[in-house]
Amino acid sequence: MICAGIDAGSRTIKVVLLDANTSRVIGAGVTDQGVKQPELALALLSRVCSEAGVEKVQIESIVATGYGRDALDIAGTTVTEITCHARGVREDQPDVRTIIDIGGQDSKLVRMTDKGYVRDFVINDRCAAGTGRFLEVVASRLGVEPQDLAGMAERADSPATISSMCVVFAESEIVGLLSSGVTPENIVAGVLSAIASRIAAMAGRHIEEPVIFTGGVAMVPGMDKALETALGCSVAIARDPQLTGAYGAALLAAEANRFP
Amino acid sequence: MRQSPRKISLAEWDTRYAEMKKEGLPEPAYGGRLSRHVNNGDYRLKRLSFDNSPASLDLWNFLLTEDERLHESRKAGRKIVGTMKDLGTVPVMAYAFPNITAFYPDGAWWIPCVMEMSAGLLRVADSLGVDESFCPVRAMLGAFVTEAHFPIPDLLVCSVGATCDDFSAIAQRLEAMGHAIVWWEMPHRRTPLTGEPSVRMPGGLEAPVDQVAFVRGQLAKIRHVLEELAGAALDDDQLSAAIRVANEARDLLERLRRLVFTAKRCPLPATELLIAEMLTIHFCSDRDECLRVLGGLLAEVELRVAAGEGLLDADAARIFWVNPVADVRALTLFEECGGRLCGTDNMFLHALDRIPSTGDPLECLAMSALSDPMVGSATDRALRICSDAKTFGAEGIVVSRIPGASHCALEGTIIADVVRSRSDLPVVELEVPPVSDAFSSSLSTRMQALVESIKQRRRP
Predict the structure, then answer these.
(1) What are phi and psi of A63, to 5 degrees?
(2) pLDDT class for A85, splitting at 50, 70, 90?
């Protein structure tokens, strides 16, 4: 039985194809988000199916998640990204107690029960601080591509302090830092640290370990270390962190088919 | 005329109203089609869903015609008192006078939502230097300037001190604009010291005797001011009688809340319950009619519960809601996401709890005022929430923040921490602006995720 999970995030759409009989991922893909969400998602699904040697009609069940989930007619069910990330993480690491998910436009901290279910969660989606959007703004200001930021942070020797938690004001701070001679590398390291501080504020005073990091921003090298420093605990990166939500959605699609 | 309970749109209400009229619907003077309020600017109604009972129609019409009642009171020569911030104390005393009508100008905080910003009240507040860093209750300033929503009261009284920083600042700005205010002070309710004489108060709270005496003294001052306005003295028997009537309303509401929170199927939407709670604070400017409206709503809910009828899914997630929403559409969204109310603390539980009724009536009123959730510690408030959530069988808690409201920003985290430490209930914080359309996607994600996590927990 083939099931699919589609995570329609704010910046990218992700698809995971799952062989529900073996619980094996048989295909996955990512594409940029756009205005015509349903068409983009369908095209990505077709591509992933083709690469996996599967016909779309073979898919028994599709669960959509992410901010654009309700726009996807091809999905039989929609489930929030909180539940999907939790499900995806639980499959690989059932003992995880805290999930940090930093996506393009929001960040979430999900607390898990010892049974692997969501206990509760905090979401930041009212400002760009603490999200991937912050990194995009910084990259644009520094005249580099977002994927270049990671290498830059690793070369920092004296990370700058970004005091503002507002992206708009932080951008002004960056201009000031550049004009005072601070290197772009040190600015980028400072920005990663500012994002991590924002997440730590969401976490409150108590954070239960193990902590796992999901979402597209988890692929930025150095972000996990910045989180570890801010939270004062170890932070592991999930396997294919950008796909965790879609993977969880595919697992839920399989469960829904098995236990309707 | 009676139908199975369900939530209907404004347009459906029009159709239903026409049918009920044909069948001889008995209506109060303020009755009529619900959609007529849209013509008065209450555009938000078009985006809400409503309970379909005649009792709920009365509830909505009663709420949305309060300004008309206030103007009629003025025409009839009654004195109008604007009671501010205490939420549930001074109106009890004011309605003991036969020639006084009391209301809360604070209620203007809902106008930006109900009129979808068309009244421009927040813009007026902005121009007066009270911007969005304050609670939306700043809309009250705009209402005083435009005079389009309530008549300017003959007397303004306002509790200040441990009540609400935002409101104190806003009311001071109002006074600076030339509206004289009689202030009375509310101390921060503290835990009695060991051996210190104390009294048990509503809500299971305890306070030092000295604090109750202090508040009693403040209320005595207000009593005197009201006597001067009314041109008549208020004796203790009259005040006791007024407390008895207030308790009648609170008893009706208590029965209504208990049924709504504990019935197997939810018998009344969250919005209608919130309005019923709000009515009880000041009787919506007509004490007798308020009792009738609450009684009608309770009777309808009793019928529904007895018949096993409800209007939400039987497996709706049972959620305790903390703080009132600036946009009532959020409650409709909450129910669409699969939630039902199972307990509330809308920051005025002291106005819903019975007022003590034995002994000095002014002292009884002081005890009621001092049990205001906002004048004690956030931990006190959280403990009551834990206790009530357990009583009503809640499966999760939503802490709804009001943008700009300083107490919400401070209290939300404390309440969430205390609840997490004392129960395993999931707690989710969200923020509801006066018109939340642009945030409905993020609000529904939070609500749906909470419902999903609650349903996961139910699995064996």
Answers:
(1) -115, 130
(2) very high
Task: Give the chain A residue whose CA is nearest to the CA of B433.
Answer: A126
Q: Which two tokens stand for residue B90?
A: 């001074």
User: Secondary structure of chain B: what % helix, strand, coil (to 5)?
Assistant: 55, 10, 35
The CATH fold of domain A2-87+243-258: Nucleotidyltransferase; domain 5 (3.30.420)
- CATH 3.30.420.40, chain A: domain bounds: 2-87+243-258, 96-237
Considering the domain A96-237, what is its CATH architecture?
2-Layer Sandwich (3.30)
Identify the H or E element spanning A85.
helix A81-92
Q: Which residue has the higher pLDDT, B149 or A174?
A: B149
Is A44 within 8 Å of A37 (Cβ atoms)? no
Task: Write out chain B residues lying below 8 Å of A258, CB-based.
Answer: none
Contact A185, A209 (CB under 8 A): no
**Prediction ipTM score:** 0.90
Q: Chain B: which residues have CB within 8 Å of chain A?
A: 396, 413, 417, 420, 424, 426-429, 431, 439, 441-442, 445-446, 448-450, 452-453, 456-457
pTM for the whole thing? 0.93
Q: How confident is the model at residue A260 (pLDDT cuts 50, 70, 90)?
A: low
Over the range A192-218, which residues count as b (16 or more CB within 10 Å of their CB) and which as e? bbbbbbbbbebbeeebeebbbbbbbbb
> To 5 degrees, how large is the angle CA A36–CA A40–CA A46?
150
Nearest chain B Cα to A201, which residue?
Answer: B413
Nearest to B445 among A80, A113, A119 (CB): A80
Beta bridge partners of B185: B160
Q: Measuring CA to CA, which residue among B380, B413, B100, B126 is closest to residue B232?
A: B100
Residue B408 tokens read as 């919400």
Read off the DSSP letter of residue B13: H
State the nearest Cα–Cα gap between A79 and chain B, in angstroms: 8
Q: Which residues of B touch A82 (CB under 8 A)?
A: 445, 449, 452-453
